[in-house]
Amino acid sequence: MNTPKVNKDYDLICVGGGIMSATLALMAKILKPDLNILILEKLGKVAQESSAAWNNAGTGHSALCELNYTPENEDGTIDISKAISICNQFEISKQFWSYLVHTGHITDPHSFIHKVPHHSWVTGEANANYLEKRFNAMKEHFMFQHIEFTKDKDVMKKWFPLIMHNRKDDEAMAASRIERGTEVNYGELTKKLFHILETDYDTPVHCNEEVLDIDPDKDVEWSVKVKNTQIGNVQHLDAQHVFIGAGGGSLLLLEKVEIDEKDGYGGFPVSGQWLVCKNEAVIKQHHAKVYSKAGIGDPPMSVPHLDTRYIDGKRELLFGPFAGFSPKFLKEGSNLDLLKSINFKNIPSMLGGFWHNLPLTKYLIEQVAMSFDDRMDDLRKFVKDAKNEDWKVVVAGQRVQIIKRDEYEGGRLQFGTEVVSSKDGSITCLLGASPGASTAVKIMLDVLEKAFPEIINSEQGTKLLKEMVPTWNTEVDKTTFKNQLKHSEQALRL
Ligand SMILES: Cc1cc2nc3c(=O)[nH]c(=O)nc-3n(C[C@H](O)[C@H](O)[C@H](O)COP(=O)(O)OP(=O)(O)OC[C@H]3O[C@@H](n4cnc5c(N)ncnc54)[C@H](O)[C@@H]3O)c2cc1C
What is the CATH number of domain 9-468? Predict the structure, then answer.
């Protein structure tokens, strides 16, 4: 990979070599192949931070098993609106990946996506009743009509035998299952997308290039200051548009950009760890993603789950995530990141966000204090006879949750993602980490709409988008959903 030429004028510079930049750049090039795009990544390779397979849970988040997308209303009914939205967004991602298979850019979808059934599993009468109500609400909607539900332990034994081993008859529990769930290696997918960009779309991906600052420029829109981390030289590159897709590093860069829209944003870093199974005989006993319920007051990212994964061509078994606190905004970040992110414009948001989320702080302190044995005890709520020698701890990725200015509370902590952009859309930035990589296509279409409306709305753009993401920006009915699902499942060999 070469050093970028000085003062080259780019239509778009994407900061960061994760799934977001890869998705944005590739969709933009497909829509308008003569766009001049450059990717800048500060590490030696792409897909090394949150998008790397071991750094995230690899779940194709489509609300088939995650209970935080189906909250219970005060009147006891279940709200499935968020689930419908998340499911729709993941199907849009699958449609784009299928398009890449149809156009011959991806030939081996199994290198990044597998069918792994998604389950929700809860213990205790109250949780079992909630799950049954959720099942009744979801089965009425065409997106989830194939959901199955059981309180019968023999059925659960078939669905996830490892979890059901040595269970007592009097333990109250319930589970639901949707067969079509997926397991995605987002790291592998990200590498593939960048490879397509480099080989088929003549788009350079420059590693070891750290973006230090982004300033307005009187001739072009933006001047991007970039330092080569190997040889230390600094250059300024010109761009009409910049996308800050630096993952946890996005907030620190956004704070340097002179636009009013950035004011009041802060970030709260949360680190993660997995327990990873080392025993092949145990790994073979589980082929499922099984999500349970977060503890009362615990944040959504704390939902424990036991997942089959496919990483580097091998089947794996992961449990977690266990959260923790680190002041770094990236796994390869600095201990000063959190401190550096605080400025006089976001202090009220940070204080408000902190004060109104004391249970999160308490939760993180408890998680940090956990020993290996404590974590194994948590795992034993899922796998009763899990042996210490069969499991090891692996560090997951770093998430930076958004703290946003709030009229009433000073600041509010958010668990979603948000695209912050200048009024003219010439600079866009992605903050936050959930639902994450699963919804990269929908989120990057939002970025394209802000940055390049003339491409999206052109005759050619509209036509291509219909082929790439047929259900994007449409009201999806039962027949369309069914047809598109079938189409994606065939293309991705699920
Ligand atoms: C524990 C955990 C579990 C998760 N589970 C799931 C899941 O099951 N399903 C799901 O869909 N999502 C999941 N996610 C979220 C998902 O991983 C992220 O949303 C997604 O990978 C973010 O991609 P990105 O491209 O924005 O960031 P990243 O992949 O982090 O890429 C950002 C890149 O920018 C680079 N960079 C940073 N600063 C600079 C700079 N100044 N100059 C140049 N380059 C820079 C970094 O080195 C990095 O390579 C999970 C995340 C975590 C942490």
Answer: 3.50.50.60
Residue 132 CA, ligand 1 centroid: distance in Å: 34
**Rounded to the nearest whole angstrom, what is the distance from the C-alpha of residue 101 to the centroid of ligand 1?**
24
Domain extents for the chain? 9-468
Counting residues of the chain whose pLDDT is more than 70, the rounded percentage is: 97
Whole-number Å distance, alpha carbon 53 to ligand 1 midpoint, is 10
pLDDT in tens, 155-207: 999 999 999 999 988 889 999 999 999 999 999 999 999 999 999 999 999 99
Stronger pLDDT, 352 or 288, i.e. the higher one: 288
67 pLDDT higher than 70: yes
Strand partners, 135: none
As a whole number of angstroms, the distance between CA 400 and CA 419 comes to: 14
Cα dihedral sign, 433-435-438-441: negative
pLDDT of residue 301: 66
Report whether residue 50 contacts ligand 1, using a CB cutoff of 6 Å.
yes
The upper half-sphere exposure of residue 202, i.e. CA atoms within 13 Å in the direction of its Cβ, equals 5
Q: Is 419 in the pocket of ligand 1 (CB under 6 A)?
A: no
- Ligand 1 in reach of 62 Cβ (< 6 A): no
CA distance 87 to 78: 16
Q: Please indicate whether residue 122, judged by its CB atom, sits closer than 6 Å to ligand 1.
A: no
166 Cα–ligand 1 center, Å: 38
CA angle (463 as vertex; 457, 467 as ends), nearest 5: 125
**Cis? peptide before 299, omega within 30° of 0:** no
Residue 189 Cα to ligand 1 middle (Å): 13
Question: What pLDDT does 296 receive?
Answer: 61
* Ligand 1 within 6 A of CB of 244: no
